[in-house]
Every structure is written in structure tokens, then in C-alpha cells.
Amino acid sequence: MPEYSYKTNGLTLNYFCNDVEAKNTLVLIHGWTGGWEVWKPLIQEFSQYKIYALDLPGHNKSGHLKNYNINTYYPPLLDFVNSLPEDNLILVGHSLGSASSIEIASRSRKIQAMLLEDPPWFSENKNKSTSSDGQEAFFLENKPKWRTVLDAIFDYQKHDPEIFKTNPYWGAVRASYAFHHDINIWNVEPGWIWQDAPKLSESVEAKTILLGGNLEKGGLMLESVAKKVQANIPDCEIHYWDTGHGVRAEKPTEYSKLLSSLLGN
Q1: For 50-90, how does the pLDDT look when each residue is reduced to its tens digit (9 = 90+)?
Q2: How many Å apart are CA 170 and CA 232, to the nearest integer?
Q3: Where are the beta strands (DSSP E) in 103-180?
Q4: Domains of the chain and CATH, by start
Q5: Residue 200 in contact with residue 102, Cβ under 8 Å?
Q6: What confidence score (pLDDT) does residue 135 get?
């Protein structure tokens, strides 16, 4: 699959593009500690559309930032989106990718629609916000010791044995991603991912679908925040499914139908 580079303010973003000419253009933004390849099943399923899939700064094959928080993540992505020749873009994000998407949509008129999968709106108050993951200490301690991807896989297997029992392939992928990421994506301050989503939504004109998981199973999108966002966007739907944080991974068929509806199919 073809990959390209985009340079902005000293940072190089890595991205995939299928180079298809189509009426609709999707821009896919993965979540924290992922990479653009997590979208491969969706890219194949929606191959009739033009698709861009980005590596977030500090992730996978993209360049590094000096520090990481929501206010440093989105500007390079916004520059990339504004540089595209296509208008009427459809943003599709997961977790940090969703948080970045609403930042972009509030600042760019190129966004026609967006599907935000379980954005990390787990607190209405930044002062009460904590990390959405809690695994920072493991990576900060162990990643400097890794010399090969195998080192990362073996350590990660000890850290999260359950994922290697239920889905060893995904466990190996996550460990491999961690090997290539900038260690400083885990060296973050409390509240690094918090954003005032209701305030941002006041500037959003794009048709929006908010898709959350079950909070008791690891979902992050508080209904109180989602409803405030919905109230500010003229065309906005809220859906909650009985999944964890990886909504798309747990219900791929239902997710595809939801995205198809956003595309007018």
C-alpha cells in the first residue's frame, strides 16, 4: 500500500493514500499508540473512495514532537488537511484521532462530515481529568531496553498476558507499534488529552456522528459531554454500543453500516 510524507513546521507526517479518484474523500486518524495500518480492513472495504490514513505525530513512521498533548497533536494534522486538493472531506477518527478530528473540524471549512469513535471525553473538568490509559510507567521503564521488536513483544506479553491469550496477533501488533513510537508519547502531563469539546463544537458545521462504548467496559465518551456537543452541531447523532473503547474492532459490521450511512449509502 502506497505511503507518502508531508512536511509541516519541521515535522514529517507519514500517511497512506490509495490514489483513487472519487467523489467522496475519507481522512482516517487512528488513536493513541496506534498507526495508520489499523484501518486496513476499512480501507479495503471502502476502496471505492479516496482514502488518506495518517500516522499521528510521534507514532509509527511520523516524526516526533518536543511534547505531546491535544494542543500539539492537532496542528500538523490541520495543516495536512488544509493542504489537500479535495474539499468536502469526511473525517473518521478513533479516540485521540476523534479528539484531533473535532479540533480540525472547528477550524477548517473543508470538513463535510465526521464519525468520531469513542472520543476521550471522560471528564467535563480538566482539573479532574487523568490519563485515559495508565500504562505510561510500563513503557517509560521498559522501552529504553528494547533493541529489537521481539524484545518489545516479549515484554508486552508479560505486561498484558490476557491480550496474547485472546488475540495474540493484535498483542504482537501493539508491541511492534510501541517499539517504533516516540517514547515521549507516554511522557505526558495529567489532562494531556482533555479538551473543551462543547466549546469546540460551537464552531463545527460538519454533519457528525458520535459513537461511544459502554463506560463500564472501557468506553470513554461521557453522555453529558456528548449531549452538549450535539446541542451545538446542527446535524449530530449520538450512538452508544455495548462495547469497550475499541468500538469498531468489536462491532466491525455495524460500524461499516454506520459509516456507510454517513456517506449517504
Answers
A1: 999 999 999 999 999 999 999 999 999 999 999 999 999 99
A2: 37
A3: 111-117
A4: 3-131+192-262 (3.40.50.1820), 136-185 (no CATH)
A5: yes
A6: 82
179-189 burial: b if 16+ Cβ within 10 Å, else e: bebbeebbebe
Distance of CA 175 to the CA centre of its chain: 18
Task: Give the DSSP letter string of 74-103.
Answer: HHHHHHHHHH-S--SEEEEEETHHHHHHHH
CA-angle at 201, arms to 203 and 224, nearest 5°: 160
Question: Alpha-carbon distance 53 to 146, whole Å?
Answer: 28
Residue 134 clears pLDDT 80, i.e. is over it: no
Are 51 and 25 contacting, i.e. CB atoms less than 8 angstroms apart? yes
Q: Model pTM?
A: 0.95
